[in-house]
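[step 3/7] fold_predict: job queued, chain A
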Amino acid sequence: MRIAILLPLCMLGAAGVAADQPANGAERRTWSEIMAYGPLPAWSVELGEWRVLHPTPDVAIVSYKVAADSIRWKAYATSVWVKRDGAWKTTFYQASTAK
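[step 4/7] structure written:
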């Protein structure tokens, strides 16, 4: 699966956190700031070990394992999805590198 397929699922205005600022801990970035880096490289990932919780009918907490095919990278990811105006939107995303 190409990671670019997942991008349209993300809600505009969402923010990411990058741990590349060791002096300050983590840095929060808006979706516009993240996309300003330019096009994402083409790489494929395998998604598996899915777990989905529905605390309410309009909320889903999704956790899964990500393994990149073209680069050496593995992670565990979690996202929270909310159904708004009949469409599912992601409101939170977090990934942690796996060994």
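[step 5/7] annotate
The beta strands are 15-21, 25-30, 45-56, 59-68, 74-84, 87-97.
The CA atoms of residues 48 and 86 lie 27 Å apart.
exit 0
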